[in-house]
Amino acid sequence: xxxxxxxxxxxxxxxxxxxxxxxxxxxxxxxxxxxxxxxxxxxxxxxxxxxxxxxxxxxxxxxxxxxxxxxxxxxxxxxxxxxxxxxxxxxxxxxxxxxxxxxxxxxxxxxxxxxxxxxxxxxxxxxxxxxxxxxxx
Length: 137
Ligand code: NI
Hints:
The protein is an alpha+beta fold. The protein contains three helices and five strands.
């Protein structure tokens, strides 16, 4: 088993807000991340794929194909959007970095399997100091 990684970037805004709570409780839990008009990040998405090396290509999976999958399935849908309102596959989900990682996994994992490889990790860097890793369970 060998691991390959591809990084893509996207810029988006979000608001951390639970609509079943009062504004006060939202502020207690989420602080200024619950401010009404949201805030933005330059996110980095790092996708790690694992598999065996194909002896004919020397690749686990063609990184150009992995880039295309990430762009068409994820980045094209989330870049320069409001993650609370604009993204069909995030409807009804609080767009925390954790929930983004889970949603991206659900979409990318089957698409990568179609290329004979396996999704190993979704890593999302939200700020210099805050990031999330998800391994599918
Ligand atoms: Ni944020």
